[in-house]
Amino acid sequence: MILILCMQFVIVLSLVVAARRSLENALPVFCFFLVLMPLEARLVIPGLFDFNTMRVSLLTLLSLYLYHGRQSSDDTPLPLKRLIFLHVSWAVCSTLYSLSVATSAKQLISQVIEYYLLYFFFVRIITKVSTIYNIVFAMVMAIGICSIFGVVEVYARWSILRIFPQNLWITYNGGVDPLYIEWGRGLRIRSTFPHPILFGDALAMTIPLTLYLLSIWERRRDRILLWISLVLMFWAIYKTSSRGPWIATVLCGTLLFIMVHNRVRTYLLAIALMAATVLLVRPGVWATIAGLYHASTDASSPVGSSYLYRDALNNAVKTAVDKEPGRALLGYGLGTFRELGLEINFLNTVQRWYTCDDNWAVFLYETGYIGLFLIASLLFAALWIAFRTYWQLPPPESYFSAVIFISLSGFYFLLLSVAGYSWGQQGYMAWILISISVSYSRIALQGDAEQAEDETTGEMEEQYELHLA
User: Fold this and answer.
1) 92-136: pLDDT as tens digits
2) DSSP string of 275-327, one letter each residue
């Protein structure tokens, strides 16, 4: 308890100190702690909600925002606001119709209000491209530290989560230890994340950002930190033994090679060469990957049957929401799947499951068809903003929007797996990326328009001078 209070005090103090010169300076600090700190770092208020570091950071940012008064960008348009309003309204209606209003109300705060409040603050506060780059750098450093924690898990068989009270641990062995050890795959590192797959999701999102920063960053010390972090990230994502993040990383790397035409291409080729070398020099690595692949294609194995579970899950969810018109429209309420579970016919056995390995299925089950449509429209509208900015801006300015587009695409692909949107740090990371994508679009396009206007004015002045001559 004392340790958690001290951590939260440090977070608040760091944000206040960073905001002394400008509130914009506090955003990278905010992102660093948001990505780094685990769900275990929370104060439990019985009967109400958990006071975790995410909420402490967000409330501190809210206080600083109100203290500093209106920002220079307060009068600018807020993209996505109509879709956000519609989704919030629908989530409220779904909560009122929920099987467990208390559970859904808590999820409404964490999964809806907090994400959109974060988005509002970032879009309103950010005025400089340098702030955006600093935010990304802070996120990369946080994931780099998480990767170091993963090294400790593997070689010391000790989790950083053990510093927190045992009753707060998220465990998979009856509360004995936060280490994640799975039959057939051994130790899978999770660092400060709730599950190895979720840590893999965060790594897959961050690796493209790290490669981009390496292609533009000039400070020697920072480049060294970025290279060290990148190496640790690739090692960590291998040690998560998570198929989805592996596939997402390869897909993101391919898109990065196609869309970004700078030093990133050289880095990707070098990484591919190093990966091939490792597979040749260390046959055990290839054996691990091949073994996981064969297990995935074997429906009789626990690893392979997880794919069959997704089919059974989707069928059960669709059947559940189609039972009555009210559930088809509003669903069963946010958070009710993990809290109350759902009876699923899997491998000819009907039993109640509390894990949903498909976020899109969760959206349908908890908020109905309209809720699924609204959240999908919102997320893909944000993705479209990133792609549109990439298309409109000239290189190299367009490359950053390409990287955001790639990272978000990887995240959306990974939503087909364990609850990555509402559980852990990845949902916050996604909305940070959405926020800086919108901010970058506004700042970069405005700067490009001003530059074009200056060039046009200069040409007109030259023509006028020639005419006078």
Assistant:
1) 999 999 999 988 998 898 889 999 999 999 999 999 999 999 999
2) HHHHHHH-HHHHHHHHHHHHHHT-TTSHHHHHHHHHHHHHHHHHHHHTSSHHH
Domains of the chain, by residue range, sit at 1-69, 82-125+321-469, 146-297
Residues of the chain with pLDDT under 50: 72, 449, 451-461, 463-469
Q: What distance in Å separates the CA atoms of residue 119 and residue 219, rounded to the nearest whole number?
A: 29
pLDDT more than 90, % of the chain: 62
d(CA 391, CA 4): 45
Q: How far is C-alpha 400 from the geometric centre of its chain's CA atoms?
A: 17
Task: Tell me if 173 sits within 8 A of 181, measured CB to CB.
Answer: yes
Closest CA to 189 of 138, 250, 146: 146
Q: How far apart are CA 227 and CA 18, in angstroms?
A: 26
The conformation of residue 112, written as its DSSP 8-state character, comes to I
Beta carbons of 232 and 187 less than 8 angstroms apart = no
Instruction: Please give, one letter per residue, the 3-state secondary structure of 381-435.
Output: HHHHHHHHHHHHCCCCCHHHHHHHHHHHHHHHHHCCCCCCCCCCCHHHHHHHHHH
Question: Residue 166 has what DSSP assignment?
Answer: G
For the record, the structure tokens of 200 come out as 């893999």
Tell me, letter by letter, the H, E, C secondary structure of 210-253: HHHHHHHCCCHHHHHHHHHHHHHHHHHHHHCCCHHHHHHHHHHH
